[in-house]
Design goal:
The protein has four helices and four strands; from the N terminus they run αββααββα. By secondary structure, it is of the alpha+beta class. The chain has one domain. Strands 1-2-3-4 form a four-stranded antiparallel sheet.
Length: 178
């Protein structure tokens, strides 16, 4: 494991998980009754307590959703851990992306473990009846981290393709000159 990335990775992961846990605890204690919107910025930004037994956008796999998503989260964390261990020392963006995704995944996993009701969601954005699915800090971290990770991995693929293509092009030029 590249230790030089640990100074960024572990603190970001911990901050995401702790802030997610704290905000969900506050939401569960203060945004009662469940489903009642509390305006933050007019009708555009509201806090509305809901429990999501499924996954993103309310994806639900029935009675065993909680357990299925727990297992899938653990598998994802193992894969992300392998990506982290393969990260080059000093690769700040990749380390940050992985920390955000892992921190968010752990935050939602904690909810699945501690409550049969599912993940606490409370951030409610939209206008009138046109609303984005309610989400939380962990969801924001996973989304941002996934976007950054996709960008980094796409850049790595493009760099690998250009490094493979360059010698082939040089070889073709040499053959044409002779």
């Amino acid at each position: 494991m590249q230790r030089s990335n640990a100074g960024l990775f572990w603190p970001v992961l911990a901050v995401v998980a702790v802030v997610d846990f704290a905000t969900k605890s506050l939401a569960a204690a203060r945004l009662l009754p469940q489903g009642m919107p509390h305006g933050v910025y007019g009708d555009v930004v509201r806090f509305t307590l809901v429990h999501n037994p499924g996954a993103a956008f309310g994806l639900n796999l029935g009675t065993y959703s909680r357990w299925i998503f727990m297992v899938l989260t653990i598998v994802a964390l193992v894969i992300l851990g392998r990506l982290y261990s393969a990260t080059r020392a000093g690769d700040v963006v990749r380390s940050l992306a992985l920390a955000l995704v892992c921190g968010g995944a752990i935050g939602n996993l904690i909810d699945r473990v501690r409550s049969p009701f599912g993940v606490v969601d409370f951030i409610d954005i939209g206008v009138g009846d046109s609303r984005w699915p309610t989400f939380n800090i962990a969801d924001m971290a996973v989304s941002l981290g996934a976007f950054l990770l996709a960008w980094v991995l796409w850049g790595e693929d493009a760099a690998a393709e250009s490094s493979v293509a360059a010698p082939a092009a040089i070889g073709a030029e040499r053959r044409e000159l002779t």
